[in-house]
């Protein structure tokens, strides 16, 4: 996303772009994502640019909620448990 934003800001300058591009990418809400995109798409060239140059998945709200791995652990809990193992 950092590269997308850097390239985007070279081409499109203005408060509306700086205020909406990062929030559109970081929000988990599809509704908020679409709101920020509507703000950006007021300029039709923005939609064309994003679809042409950045067609890959770049927004958090567009990612699947399904886990991509079958083993998920918490490193903090693992570290704590290994520290108190002798006391158990």
Q: What key attributes describe this structure?
A:
mainly alpha; elongated
Task: Report on this structure.
The protein has helices at residues 2-11, 15-26, 30-40, 44-53, 75-84. The protein has 88 residues and is an all-alpha fold. Helix 2 (15-26) runs antiparallel to helix 3 (30-40). The protein is elongated. The mean pLDDT is 87.
DSSP strand content: under 5%
Main beta-sheet annotation? none
The share of residues in helices is: 55-70%
Q: What is the β-strand count?
A: 0
Radius of gyration: 19 Å
Q: Tell me the overall shape.
A: elongated
Q: Which spans have pLDDT < 50 for at least 5 consecutive residues?
A: none
Overall domain count: 1
Which structural class do the helices and strands define? mainly alpha
The SSE string, one letter per element, is HHHHH
Total of DSSP H or I helical runs spanning 4+ residues: 5
Straight-line distance between termini: 45 Å
**What's the mean pLDDT score?**
87
Provide a quick synopsis of the model.
The protein has helices spanning 2-11, 15-26, 30-40, 44-53, 75-84. With 88 residues, it is mostly helical.
SSE blueprint and pairings:
Elements: H1 2-11, H2 15-26, H3 30-40, H4 44-53, H5 75-84
Helix pairs in contact: 2-3
Organism: Aegilops tauschii subsp. strangulata (Goatgrass)
Protein name: Protein FAR1-RELATED SEQUENCE
């Amino acid at each position: 996303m950092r590269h997308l934003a850097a390239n985007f800001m070279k081409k499109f300058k203005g408060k509306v772009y700086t205020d909406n591009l990062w929030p559109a990418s970081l929000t988990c809400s599809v509704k908020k994502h679409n709101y920020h995109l509507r703000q950006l798409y007021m300029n039709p060239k923005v939609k064309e640019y994003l679809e042409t140059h950045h067609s890959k998945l770049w927004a958090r709200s567009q990612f699947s909620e399904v886990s991509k791995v079958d083993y998920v652990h918490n490193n903090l809990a693992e570290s704590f448990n290994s520290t108190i193992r002798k006391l158990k």
